[in-house]
């Protein structure tokens, strides 16, 4: 098997050496032109006169001035809903064979996001590019002969009219290349089990049959699966059963909040590689070990724009104001949060995906996810983004020598004023509540000047409740669905938070 591993590793290294380097700015210009050319005769393309945009002196500028921002609700109401009525050539030529169902972090109602064959090809190519980038990591040849566990949503897609529906991880897993099926675990039979608890229980029962070298999936659900395997076989850690596990490919959310609790399930360190696969496409992946940042996929089926993440450009519901300025890749700056806008080969146009990002390396087009537009906590001027909240959780973990893989909070009005009311998910945070409150409040004052100013005015302080991490998973199961792409809300509105408190208590 080592000979085979050396052959595979050599092929990957050779492909990487022969692949020309990509100029991200030039690649993005080509992508935009290709998108416009392909979709110019669609209903959307004719409505916004794509041909005129293509003939203009500055395509990128004319494009941004001609087409408004769309969030899911707007583009679905005005355009994608036509697809469900049987119309063709709406925002992309033909009709999509798949729709990705995504409740994301918002609620029970699933979004239905078109996934075209062109998008599936773009996702596959980005996956190949990510595998090629493994040549940059110091992985032994034997790693390339081991099996890969992909923990996503069910691949048993629902047939509806002339298309199939399911979460994006289920759609992509049902379309994996034939050459990869021998490495893919848990295998097609288990991957089709729709009930997440039953699927994980089946994985635990069969775990000894596999030689897992890599894991892939959202951290919160991956942790619960690993715990199930460890408990079922009465193990000390996951390496007792999968000794050759060397790589974990995280995705969908930032890995940082889960790092400490995830590492507690391991017997030895693994290489963590971040990816950014959303229902709307494969946006970025970590391409080198010197950084945890991810490289935007600039030569695929996605064109990126960036809106500075500032309160004056953001509506209360997280949507963008009409006058919010967008810039292209050539004009971005470091140390600035941006709202990410995408146009894709699935027929999304100037689409607000809901995430905020920050560039860590402009030349390499490398980013990190900093939060969600809807999770920007600014009720009383505190201006806290999710990355700042994550940093506060990391501080508490170190301060109290604990793990806090989950949390949520709300700016809530009490009898004596506004407080940030936090719920922390932890198995072993047993400190006096007053100490936790003082530590959290003190850190936020030090780390964020806007929070410190808010604390001197309308914000009275923080309140903290500690619950078991399983409560967060149960909440997701009760309100959405366990597993797959489902993510926990980090910041809630007061109405949703009332439901959460009743559930948690």
UniProtKB/TrEMBL annotation:
Domain GH3 C-terminal, chain residue ranges per copy: 389-493
Pfam families per the UniProt record, alphabetical: GH3 (PF03321), GH3_C (PF23572), GH3_M (PF23571)
TM ranges: none
One cellular component term from this protein's GO annotations in UniProt: cytoplasm
GO molecular function: acid-amino acid ligase activity
Domain GH3 middle, chain residue ranges per copy: 298-363
Protein name: GH3 auxin-responsive promoter
Source organism of the structure: Lacinutrix venerupis
């Amino acid at each position: 098997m080592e000979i085979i591993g050396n052959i595979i590793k050599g092929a990957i290294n050779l492909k990487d050496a022969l692949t020309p380097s990509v100029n991200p700015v030039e690649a993005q210009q080509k992508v935009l032109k290709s998108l416009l050319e392909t979709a110019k005769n669609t209903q959307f393309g004719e409505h916004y006169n794509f041909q005129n945009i293509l003939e203009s002196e500055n395509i990128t500028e004319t494009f941004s001035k001609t087409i408004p921002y769309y969030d899911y609700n707007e583009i679905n109401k005005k355009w994608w809903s036509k697809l469900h009525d049987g119309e063709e050539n709406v925002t992309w030529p033909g009709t999509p064979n798949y729709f990705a169902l995504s409740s994301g972090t918002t609620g029970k109602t699933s979004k239905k996001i078109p996934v075209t064959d062109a998008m599936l090809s773009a996702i596959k190519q980005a996956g190949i590019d990510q595998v090629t980038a493994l040549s940059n990591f110091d992985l032994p040849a034997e790693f390339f002969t081991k099996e890969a566990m992909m923990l996503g949503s069910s691949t048993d897609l629902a047939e509806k009219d002339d298309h199939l529906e399911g979460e994006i991880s289920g759609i992509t897993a049902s379309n994996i290349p034939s050459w990869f099926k021998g490495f893919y675990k848990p295998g097609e039979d288990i991957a089709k089990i729709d009930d997440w608890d039953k699927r994980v229980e089946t994985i635990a029962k069969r775990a000894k049959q596999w030689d897992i070298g890599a894991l892939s999936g959202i951290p919160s659900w991956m942790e619960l699966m690993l715990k199930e395997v460890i408990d079922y076989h009465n193990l000390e850690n996951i390496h007792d059963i999968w000794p050759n596990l060397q790589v974990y490919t995280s995705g969908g959310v930032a890995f940082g909040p889960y790092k400490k609790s995830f590492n507690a399930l391991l017997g030895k360190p693994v290489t963590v590689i971040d990816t950014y696969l959303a229902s709307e496409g494969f946006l970025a992946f970590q391409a080198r070990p010197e950084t945890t940042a991810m490289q935007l996929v600039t030569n695929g089926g996605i064109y990126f724009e960036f809106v500075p993440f500032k309160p004056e450009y953001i509506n209360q519901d997280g949507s963008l104001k009409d006058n919010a300025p967008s810039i292209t890749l050539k004009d971005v700056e470091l140390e600035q949060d941006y709202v990410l806008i995408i146009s894709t080969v699935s027929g999304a146009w100037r689409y607000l995906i809901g995430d905020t990002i920050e560039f860590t390396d402009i030349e390499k087009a490398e980013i990190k996810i900093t939060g969600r537009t809807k999770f920007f906590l600014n009720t009383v001027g505190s201006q806290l983004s999710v990355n700042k909240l994550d940093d506060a959780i990391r501080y508490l973990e170190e301060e109290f020598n604990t793990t806090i893989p989950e949390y949520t909070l709300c700016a809530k009005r009490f009898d004596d004023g506004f407080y940030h009311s936090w719920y922390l998910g932890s198995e072993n945070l047993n400190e006096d509540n007053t100490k936790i409150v003082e530590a959290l409040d003190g850190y936020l004052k030090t780390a964020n000047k806007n929070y410190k100013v808010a604390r001197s005015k309308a914000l009275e302080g923080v309140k903290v409740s500690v619950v078991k991490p399983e409560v967060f998973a149960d909440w997701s199961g009760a309100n959405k669905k366990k597993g797959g792409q489902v993510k926990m809300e980090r910041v809630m509105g007061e109405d949703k938070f009332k439901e959460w408190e009743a559930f948690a208590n």
